[in-house]
Amino acid sequence: MGSSTYMPKSKVGKWFEERLPIMGLMHSTLGAGYNAPRNLNYWWNFGSLAGFMLVVQILTGIILVMHYTPNVDLAFRSVEHIMRDVNYGWLMRYTHSNGASMFFVVVYVHILRGMYFGSYKSPREVLWFLGLVIYLLMMATGFMGYVLPWGQMSFWGATVITNLFGAFDFYNGMGESILHLLWGGFSVDNPTLQRFFSLHYLFPFIIVGVVILHIWALHLPGSNNPLGIDAKGPGDKIPFHPYYTAKDALGLSFFIVIFALFVFYMPNIMGEPDNYIEANPMVTPSHIVPEWYYLPFYTILKAVPDKLFGVIAMFFSILIFFVLPWLDGSKVRSAKFRPATAFFFWLFLVNAIFLGYLGTKLPSEIIINMGGGIDALTLGRIASVFYFAYFIVIIPVVSRMETTKPVPTSIAQSVLDARKEG
Amino acid sequence: MTTNDQIEHEEEVTRRNFLYVATGVVGAVGVASVAWPLVDQMNPSADVLAMASVEVDISPIPVGQTISILWRGKPVFIRHRTEKEIARGVSENNDPMIDPADDQDRAQKPEWLIMIGICTHLGCVPLDNTEFQSGDYGGWYCPCHGSEYDIAGRIRKGPAPRNLDLPKYKYLSDTTVKIG
Ligand code: HEM
Ligand code: FES
């Protein structure tokens, strides 16, 4: 953002631009007026995909609200009404429920991209923070949205997650007071559903606000790039439009095909069948699992034998991302030139996926049939320890000890070198 | 404000500081008093608080059976315990426990175990293992994260920190109990 060289061509355009320079703002943030590094690869597509998903969720969400009723006696039925009676209601709901999953896929790739290429490092720390704030808001939004259809998983997911806050029981009755405040009652019930509905509608718009700040913070230093070096001369950059608008549009097309495959051919694959049973406070489903995007953190929660420390470990496992810029002491950003860092990054990713897999298992379930058998709880503990060790030990030590590979002098130079070789 | 002014009005600076701080304090109190209703509206409303207690006729529950009733949106277990179960509960009084309690303190009448059927970990409804005295502790098993409760609802294994909570209750007669 900032000053722009935008010149409207029409008379009306000029008249308007003098009074509100919004076209110039667009031009300099997402148009030809914004110059981005010339070497961005497809991993840089995921930011705009996340923006697309936010728009999809808001559009389908607003439509769902036209037919949905936030009341314990009617919510479940109104969702079935959307599915069966409302014209294209099934499409709106499946797009919204699978859209939440796609949104998280895209954002996870986007975050991991930042980790691999060192985008969180100076001078982009605040940009990184704002991204994490968006992620936290998304987690809250997704959680509250999942409660709205008022199925068994909605109810029991809400019960388990809200009860986490009861762990903050520092003086007698404090935990309970927090819970009563959250629920508006003595358990998850109608007041809970109604406040979640209100906030589920609100949060996405707060996310829009933070996204604007996120892009603002991006445009001061400009985009990072796969080499992780600063883009300097004009030879290092190309205008966002038409180059990256076209590249993003191509990526978006592929993405929409995959999204459509889920919506039209396997709309319930990421859902839980139990959520098609109406909520019943007397019966807990035999197996409660959160949505897949929370699973790694759920495993960390289960790995700690103490309730309070389990909850603290779980929150900490996300908040620790905020200090990543300082845990990493390397002068080089991109893991392209940091082989050991790259190795541990992939290990971290595999471990995180494994944590997610364990999240779907019962603690006592035998995962590895060796000796007496190793259960999910033990493996979850090992994987959780590695998760934290990655941040607290591996990154700080490796980033400071590692001999990095030679870094190209400029983006333009590296592009020319690659051409000579290839 | 010029330098001249500053010298001339030096004592006024303290006066201005005072006004500045006073305004801030009054403002803060004002904001806090407006904020409280905004927060407190989240707490249980009058009708929820007024939710009546329930009276249960326990005479139809045979020995060795549990019923669940809904009270304040939560299940309450009422178990008619067998002699064997009571004996087991008492005999395990000195076993290692996360939240030590004597069997005698878990029920007003030992044959009637009345507990809130909500796992003290994160609020799932534990499953009943009492019938066949299965599992290591023969009581309740929480499917969510594997907490195990014994035949007196005492937490013996797993992440839950407390024994199953006991609601307030009173015997109105030999066969009716009032919960809440
Ligand atoms: C950040 C963006 C959003 C995310 C991640 C999100 C996520 C979710 C999820 C996971 C569900 C449960 C879907 C199901 O299993 O049926 C849901 C339901 C719902 N959402 Fe959203 N949502 C978002 C934005 C919105 C917005 C902006 C609105 C309203 C304007 C909205 C309205 C609804 C409604 C009415 C439901 C209940 C109907 C249903 O279950 O399909 N959502 N949302
Ligand atoms: S809720 Fe029962 S063990 Fe977690």
Please characterize this protein's 3D structure.
- The complex is a heterodimer of chains A (422) and B (180).
- With 422 residues, chain A is mainly alpha-helical.
- Chain A contains 16 helices and 4 strands.
- Chain A has a two-stranded antiparallel ribbon.
- In chain A, a hairpin with a 5-residue loop joins strand 3 and strand 4.
- In chain A, helix 5 crosses helix 10.
- Chain A is globular, with a radius of gyration of 24 Å.
- The model of chain A has no long low-confidence stretch (mean pLDDT 94).
- Chain B has 180 residues and is α+β, with helices and mostly antiparallel strands.
- Chain B has 4 helices and 10 strands.
- In chain B, the strands form 3 sheets. In chain B, strands 5-6-7-8 form a 4-stranded antiparallel β-sheet, with no helix packed on it. A 3-stranded antiparallel β-sheet of chain B has the order 1-10-9, with no helix packed on it.
- In chain B, strand 9 and strand 10 form a beta hairpin.
- Chains A and B meet through helix 7, helix 8 and helix 12 of A and loops of B.
- The complex binds protoporphyrin IX containing FE and FE2/S2 (inorganic) cluster.
Instruction: Report the end-to-end length of chain A measured between terminal Cα atoms.
Output: 37 Å
The helix/strand class of chain A is mainly alpha
Biggest sheet statistics of chain A:
2 strands, antiparallel
Portion of residues within helices of chain B: 25-40%
The backbone outline of chain B, from C-alpha atoms, is elongated
Order of H and E elements of chain B: HHHEEEHEEEEEEE
Q: Report the strand count of chain A.
A: 4
**H and E order of chain A:** HHEHHHHHHHEHHHHHEEHH
